[in-house]
């Protein structure tokens, strides 16, 4: 990683913002009423492939833009795992997490602003909720917890294997 700590913090902010903007923007385009990505009866035309590409680009573009500056963590789990492994200084974990959270919030705010007319037209609360978070159709908090825990563990193991 190169660059000052201020540049690294800014890179994490903008990288995380882009990730959320592209990923959740793809979800919004797929599920909100009358968007170009929304099919009939609330079914997404592009479906999960379109959403996966949105998130993939949301990770790839910041990696190419900011990877050499900040390491392109974009996820608190990666930052904490790197600190635990001695790759990243613990003293910088809190600022990284703050900038990642702020970037995610600004990214979601941009999705909300960009798609606001479509949010107003959409009556399906599940479709609206999906643009902010993963809905748990099982109705179980533990199901959501374990899904996220296992997915994050796999992501972290893969990412740590790259260092």
Automatic annotation (TrEMBL):
GO terms for molecular function: glycerol channel activity. It is found in: Membrane. Gene3D superfamilies: Glycerol uptake facilitator protein (1.20.1080.10). It is a multi-pass membrane protein. Its main location: membrane. One of its GO terms (cellular component) is plasma membrane. Keywords: Membrane, Transmembrane, Transmembrane helix, Transport. Pfam families: MIP. Belongs to the MIP/aquaporin (TC 1.A.8) family. This is Aquaporin family protein.
């Amino acid at each position: 990683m190169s660059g000052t700590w201020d540049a690294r913090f800014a890179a994490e902010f903008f990288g995380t913002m882009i990730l959320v903007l592209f990923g959740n923007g793809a979800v919004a385009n797929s599920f909100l009423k009358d968007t170009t990505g929304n099919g009939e009866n609330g079914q997404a035309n592009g479906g999960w492939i379109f959403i996966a590409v949105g998130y993939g680009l949301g990770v790839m573009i910041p990696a190419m833009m900011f990877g050499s500056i900040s390491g392109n963590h974009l996820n608190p789990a990666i930052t904490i795992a790197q600190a635990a492994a001695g790759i990243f200084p613990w003293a910088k974990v809190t600022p990284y997490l703050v900038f990642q959270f702020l970037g995610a919030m600004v990214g979601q705010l941009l999705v909300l602003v960009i798609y606001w007319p479509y949010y107003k037209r959409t009556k399906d609360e599940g479709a609206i909720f999906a643009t902010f978070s993963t809905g748990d159709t099982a109705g179980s908090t533990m199901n959501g917890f374990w899904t996220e825990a296992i997915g994050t563990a796999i992501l972290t193991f893969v990412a740590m294997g790259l260092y």
